[in-house]
Design brief:
By secondary structure, this protein is of the alpha/beta class. It contains 5 helices and 7 strands. A hairpin with a 5-residue loop joins strand 3 and strand 4. The radius of gyration is 17 Å and the shape is globular. It starts with 8 loop residues before the first strand and ends with a helix. The chain binds inosinic acid (IMP).
């Protein structure tokens, strides 16, 4: 049986529950499997020097795993997300190091470190970037990028979302990502933009 939108399943190569939730609502027509669902429990070392390189590392690790141990699953699509925040006044740090910016590496500690580094710097410009890497069952690889520009608040605003959401206010708005519902955030976020490009591509190639 050929690959089509009814039998294709997406394996999302991330252990980040928040990203998984956002991806599930961005791809409502697909069954999205987590790494747990496919029995993958190893750590993936993200030692690439760009978002694209790290997204590729994640997807390729899962491709190798599935094709070594799970040959019976030809219709799995593999999707990964590498994303981060780039702050103009910090020479675009933390960038690819966003998840491990502080020594603790928790969302709270990362965000506090970012506010501390910026202190009262008047330049609050930042952007979020997301690169999605999709590998088709035949091994071909496709990338989709989304970006959103905004400003960083001086204080935490809102409780939704994850990561740096409570201090990121998209350009032209007043609410932070953490003050938005998931669908509101998805309609304009870096992940939402990349996800839309990816689903348009999938709609073209799947019968
Ligand atoms: P990754 O899982 O290695 O791609 O790291 C992504 C990190 O970037 C996350 O742990 C967050 O710190 C940050 N990040 C990426 N996307 C978002 C978002 O949508 N909201 C808030 N923080 C994000």
């Amino acid at each position: 049986m050929g690959l089509n939108s009814k039998n294709a399943k997406i394996v999302f190569a991330s252990n980040n529950g928040h990203k998984l939730e956002e991806i599930r609502s961005l791809f409502p027509n697909f069954e999205i499997l987590s790494l747990k669902d496919i029995g993958f429990d190893k750590e993936i070392i993200e030692n690439g020097h760009s978002f694209e390189a790290n997204a590729r590392i994640k997807s390729e690790s899962i491709f190798r795993f599935l094709h070594t141990f799970k040959e019976e699953n030809p219709s799995y699509l593999i999707l990964s997300d590498d994303s981060g925040i780039c702050v103009e006044a910090l020479n675009f740090a933390p960038g690819i190091h966003s998840a491990r910016y502080s020594s603790q590496g928790t969302d709270k500690a990362n965000l506090e470190k970012l506010l501390e580094e910026l202190r009262d710097n008047p330049n609050r410009k930042a952007f979020f970037i997301c690169v999605l890497c999709l590998i088709l069952p035949n091994g071909t690889t496709h990338f989709f990028e989304g970006k959103i520009h905004g400003n960083l608040s001086e204080k935490v605003l809102g409780e939704n979302g994850f990561g740096y959401d409570p201090i990121f206010v998209p350009l032209g708005g007043e609410k932070s990502f953490a003050q938005m519902s998931e669908s509101e955030k998805n309609s304009l976020s870096h992940r939402g933009v990349a996800g839309k490009k990816c689903s348009e591509f999938l709609a073209q190639i799947l019968s």
